[in-house]
Design a protein that fits this description.
- Helix 3 runs parallel beside helix 10.
- It contains eleven helices and two strands; from the N terminus they run H-H-H-H-E-E-H-H-H-H-H-H-H.
- The longest helix has 29 residues.
- The chain has a two-stranded antiparallel sheet.
- By secondary structure, it is mainly alpha-helical.
Length: 262
Amino acid sequence: MTYLLVGLVSFGASVVTVFSGFGLGSLLVALFVILFPVDVAVSAAAVVHLFHNLLKSTLFFRRAEPRIVIRFGLPAVVFAFVGAFMLSRLAEGSVRATWEIGDRTAVITPLKVLMGSMIAGFALLDLVPRLERLRPGERWLPVGGILSGFFGGLSGHQGAFRAAFLSQLDLKPEAYVGTQAVLALMVDVARLLVYGAALYAGHMSMVAGPGQWSVVGVAVVSAAAGVLLGWRYLHKTTLAGLRKLIGGLLLAVGCGLVLGVL
């Protein structure tokens, strides 16, 4: 049942992400925190996200806009290292509070509160129409890169900030998708380098054992299938309803993390 759920979520979120530029990482983190410890969930989602963007970049990289990749991507890579380094330290956070829910003890830690708050915050970008209409100009691209890279490294949630800054640039669909894919791939490589160093130093846990790797493998294959389907129907799908669904799920998981239930 776990494999079926992971496969369906990864496939559906991957299709959405082909068009929107975000959704896969956010939804996978929300799902994986139910299955794994929080730091493992972030690293597992990063692995799937990396393969997703490798395939998407292969299909669309010729459509990417070089000026945007440079102005947005370079700050994003730098701050992806900063965010990923913070995650490696926060993974050592101690328990701050506990409370009982039936026969289960809910555990609240600084990392869970921070992660849950960010996940809920990103959900509001999907759920509040006024936030969706915020359209920063091209001169703010470096700021968008800083925000996207930092949150991408810290929690895996890079796409919402990136989409907010890029969607107003009137790029053609193929150029938008290609630019998104290249930028996301740059951040993925940066944060995975830091996660690997943190694992080596013993500061955080990453995917390990056949049980966890098999779940990640199912997610990678399903996400790849989603990219291929989305590529085929790039011009024929609307995503407003799907974004609202993702926002609702993220909000629920974010609140669950803050309260220590998840």
